[in-house]
């Protein structure tokens, strides 16, 4: 059956903690646009361009690590349903196929209008409490994968993750360790925006250099910032494997705490 506006407004997702989840405000914002599109297709008021299947497929959300976020698999599965529904209505949005009623030009500023929704308070579509609005706007998608830390990702499950290295058996981390670090790249599954990760690790490299030179006052990062960093995610484009990035950031945060508590 075709989706209805109430299918969108009543949709809920489980929330996750201590592992990657989608920023709740970002997901709600996209679903508000979908809901407004369905309202317009049913003859209701239309105040902006109709969203297309291509836009939904290209959607990218910030991720949460320490704060609650929506379960990524549940969100991705629902977005696939939305994409199929929009395509069945002629709203594919592929090049040369604008879809019925599409308007040229950028969408109006602000949140796309639709049926009124209370301001997001962290409860949103999740069954439990969640955070308030995330920091800053979403990062624009990169034009393509940068050179640097990416590596081909083997089939899922083909290579088990390495066991954690006990702290006592690990030598101190150096700037060179950060510079040489490589991550597997993902495609068609959630990955971290490569430019954002690389920029952050450049700061981490500078931090270790300052600490090793006895100049903690010049270190641009501390352990808390490493633990709380969030990156935009990719779906259709390559991205760094989140599990590998998170594991390396945990080691980095532990290393910085050694200096802070030493």
From TrEMBL:
Gene3D superfamilies the record matches: 6.10.250.660
Domain of life: Bacteria
Biased composition (Pro residues): 97-118, 128-148, 157-166
Keywords, ordered alphabetically: Cell cycle, Cell division, Coiled coil, Cytoplasm
Compartment(s) where it occurs, according to its Swiss-Prot or TrEMBL record: Cytoplasm
Chief site of localization: cytoplasm
Membrane-spanning residues: none
InterPro entries in UniProt: DivIVA_domain, DivIVA_fam
Region (Disordered): 89-180
Family according to the record: Belongs to the DivIVA family.
Protein name: Cell wall synthesis protein Wag31
Species of provenance: Nocardiopsis sediminis
């Amino acid at each position: 059956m075709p989706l209805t506006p109430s299918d969108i407004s009543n949709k809920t997702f489980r929330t996750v903690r201590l592992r990657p989840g989608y920023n709740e405000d970002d997901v709600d914002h996209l679903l508000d646009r979908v809901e407004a599109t369905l309202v317009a297709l049913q003859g209701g008021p239309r105040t902006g361009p109709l969203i297309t299947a291509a836009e939904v497929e290209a959607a990218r959300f910030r991720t949460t690590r320490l704060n609650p976020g929506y379960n990524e698999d549940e969100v991705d599965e629902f977005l696939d349903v939305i994409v199929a529904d929009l395509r069945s209505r002629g709203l594919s949005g592929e090049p040369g196929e604008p879809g019925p009623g599409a308007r040229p030009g950028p969408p109006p500023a602000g949140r796309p209008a639709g049926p009124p929704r209370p301001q997001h308070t962290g409860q949103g579509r999740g069954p439990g409490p969640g955070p308030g609005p995330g920091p800053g706007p979403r990062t624009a998608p990169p034009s393509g994968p940068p050179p640097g830390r990416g590596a081909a990702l083997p089939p899922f499950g083909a290579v088990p993750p390495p066991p954690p290295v006990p702290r006592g058996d690990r030598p101190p981390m150096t700037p060179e360790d950060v510079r040489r670090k490589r991550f597997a790249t993902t495609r068609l599954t959630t990955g971290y925006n490569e430019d954002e990760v690389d920029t952050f690790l450049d700061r981490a490299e500078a931090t270790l250099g300052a600490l090793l030179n006895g100049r903690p006052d010049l270190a641009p990062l501390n352990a808390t910032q490493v633990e709380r960093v969030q990156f935009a995610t990719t779906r259709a484009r390559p991205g760094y494997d989140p599990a590998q990035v998170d594991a390396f950031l945990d080691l980095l945060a532990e290393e910085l705490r050694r200096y802070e508590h030493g």
